[in-house]
Amino acid sequence: MKRVFPVVSAIIIGILLAKFMFNQYKYDTKLDTVFNNGTKVYFIQQGVYSSFESMQTSLASFTYYIYTLDSDKYYAYIAITKSPENSEKLKGYYSNLGYTIYVKELNVNNTDFLSLLEQYDTLLSKSSENSVIEAITIQSLKKYEELVK
Hints:
Elements: H1 4-24, H2 30-36, E1 39-49, H3 52-58, E2 66-70, E3 73-81, H4 84-96, E4 102-108, H5 111-126, H6 130-147
Antiparallel strand pairs: 1-3, 1-4, 2-3
Helix pairs in contact: 5-6
């Protein structure tokens, strides 16, 4: 009986302390808005690669690009836009240059980046020169890395 009392009291004290700790951290509803209510952004994906070296080789002709690593695959992105019309424009632009392009929709929550992206989209929708389109896509990728990543 002497050995049972300390064990039972330790379990009860542990349960009470755990309940106290869980009550200190209330469920934060802001987490739902961070993950679910982002603004849809169109990432222009050039390809998926199994190694970093093969990605670098394939993207050697691009001045600037970003990539993500997911499940041992490298996903390379060459442009970002908020506008569905501009995503089609960019897809056509890069397809005409001979690249296989995919449009990937992701949610972004950074308001500073989204407001800059709107400005880039305005410029992109009014532009048809290749050098201007390339400059806009490079700037948007750099700002994404600076403000979001």
